Amino acid sequence: MNLKDKLEQLKENSLSEIKSASDTKKINDIRVHVLGKKGPITEVLRGMRDLPADERPKVGSFANKVRDEISEAITQRRDELEIAKTADKLEQEKIDVTLPGVPVKQGQPHVLEQVIDQIEKLFLGMGYQVVDGPEVEEDHYNFEMLNLPKDHPARDMQDTFYITNSILMRTQTSPVQARTMEKHDFSQGPLKMISPGKVYRRDTDDATHSHQFHQVEGLVIDKHITMADLKGTLQQLAKNLFGEEREIRMRPSYFPFTEPSAEVDVSCFKCGGKGCAVCKYTGWIETLGAGMVHPNVLKMAGIDPEIYGGFAFGLGPDRFAMLKYGVNDIREFYLNDVRFLEQFSQKG
Ligand code: 2U9
């Protein structure tokens, strides 16, 4: 076979191989094999040495033409394969933007936070400030300043988590009031504050006890504050939380930090006072403790009890939420089971 025929055949074979190549690797192999230094075209060009001189240019230019054609066919096929590959990838990764999205579960404040928020809103509206304080507290602020000296029997009333002899987990939020009272400048006006937050007691957890629960305590100090101011304030609180028709009653009690002290009952929100299971057939539900700030507490904060006086109260949001929503185990609030928590949706 002469060189020209050889080249013709090589061209036919290569073009058909290129045409049927199904991936770019195969194309590359063909390129290396056919056009490479050890390939048949190079061989033909080398063989031209043995040709008569007048045939060389003809065969040479034919060989070049064949090489160019094969090279072009390779480029074209490679482009085709690249385009097909991209199209395939796009097809596989296709996103249907019209499909409905995956719904995002919307959260909400914890039910205790909802109760505390409501109390905060009410008192902010009455000109009180909401004050935060440390949960790890000094004995001095938690007990001493609240008229509970070291040997006071009332210290036994609450079992305490002590960290050192003088540092403890606060058992009430009153130390926040003690700290604020100590700093307050009465030339700027009366002190009106509430302090919501977590408190700690060394209780064994059961349906009605939790070693950590919440309190909101209130304190007002000014000249000429009376128990009538206290009663009016608590009446507003009871109506705001349990309904406009609610009434309150006060029974004498004892707290070391108030004198006189009172337990405060709210008329039953379930039966309106007639008697039912919620109020244990009494018509009243015990909800708050309160009283007039003890002169010793004022003195210890550097306030003259001859000039200033005030009232204080304390309530438990956990107990409020249990009553309001009929929850019979306080531990539910702290398990963070979404099935429990999502029942208190504010969406209506
Ligand atoms: C200062 C002076 C007095 C806060 C008060 C109560 C009565 C009370 C409890 C009710 C249920 C807390 O959630 S509870 O466990 N509290 O009965 N607390 S008077 O008296 C203060 C506070 C601060 C400086």
Tell me about this structure.
With about 350 residues, this protein is an alpha+beta fold. It folds into two domains: about 5-95, no CATH class; about 110-340, Bira Bifunctional Protein, Domain 2 (BirA Bifunctional Protein, domain 2). Helix content is about 40%, strand content about 20%. The chain is built from twelve helices and nine strands. It has helices at about 5-20, 25-35, 40-45, 55-90, 110-125, 140, 175-185, 225-240, 295-300, 315-325, 330-335, 340, and strands spanning about 130, 135-140, 165-170, 190-200, 210-220, 250-255, 260-265, 285-295, 310-315. The strands form two sheets. The chain has a seven-stranded mixed β-sheet, with helices on both faces. Strands 2-3 form a two-stranded antiparallel ribbon. A hairpin with a 2-residue loop joins strand 6 (about 250-255) and strand 7. Helix 1 (about 5-20) packs antiparallel against helix 3. The longest helix has about 35 residues, at about 55-90. It is rod-shaped and about 135 Å long. Bound molecules: ligand 2U9. Ligand 2U9 binds near residues 181, 290, 293 and 314.
Give the key terms:
348 residues; alpha+beta; BirA Bifunctional Protein, domain 2; 2 domains; seven-stranded mixed β-sheet; two-stranded antiparallel sheet; 12 helices; 41% helix; rod-shaped; binds ligand 2U9; ATP-binding
